[in-house]
Amino acid sequence: MVAVPVFNIEGKRVGEMEIDPAVLGGRVHPKLLKQAIVAYADHRRQRSARTKGRADKQGSTRKLHRQKGTGNARVGNVRTAIRRGGGRAFAKRIPTAEKAFPKKMRRLARNNAILAKIESENIMIVEGLSFSAPKTKALTATLSALGIHGGCLLATHESDRHVYLSSRNIPETDVCAVRDLNAFDVLLREKLLFTKPAFKCLQGDPERLQEVATDE
Fold it and tell me: Are 72 and 152 in a shared domain?
């Protein structure tokens, strides 16, 4: 079992919670984490960059003049790449294939990313973090009390609009429900924070985070 420290919103350590490393994959697989980052970055591409080739340009396919006897250089049709207004010789096309990353690999990569944060001591649990209205100042004070200055990812039990709105103006700070965690977002930020109910969901069955219980 590995222990994760629990802090209150004033930044004082009030205890710890334990989790079995086997639940998170047993050990960290660096190659899998790299593959996850490459795959998620590839899936974020807009895939709209392209240029026009010869087939995409308008114009006749007729040869401009005969091959020999004119004294001019050989030339093809008006859409050739060497003429102004012609198509590109090696046109850039929209890539159709994305890097495959199956569900079981995504889940294991997410669990490994969390385990890596635990092993590097860049994870903590926050107790009593809830707002009745968006309060950026209060959330900033809590992060400062926890010693977080280089960005963090905060995982909540379920989608919390008030916490999300409170974090929007804080640089390099992201908030998401525990069921939406993925390896890329976990590794992107220096620190990983869990609310206490969110960490309990992780302790229970990280393979079925989509079925998060509503009770704390």
Answer: no
Distance CA 29, CA 15 (A): 29
Among residues 110, 119, 155, which one has the least CA distance to residue 21? Answer: 119
Q: Are the CB atoms for 35 and 110 separated by under 8 Å?
A: no
Q: Are 65 and 72 in contact (CB under 8 A)?
A: yes
* CA 121 from centroid of its chain's CA atoms: 21
Note down the domain range covering 13.
Answer: 2-46+99-211
Q: What is the pTM of this model?
A: 0.74
Same domain, 134 and 85: no
d(CA 181, CA 154): 10
Locus of tokens 């930044």 = 11
Q: Are residues 135 and 31 both part of a single domain? A: yes
- Rounded to whole angstroms, what are the CA distances from 170 to 23, 124, 165? 32, 19, 10
pLDDT tens digits for 3-56? Answer: 888 999 888 888 888 888 888 888 899 999 999 999 998 888 887 888 899 888
Distance, in Å, from the CA atom of 6 to the CA atom of 124, rounded to the nearest integer, reads: 6
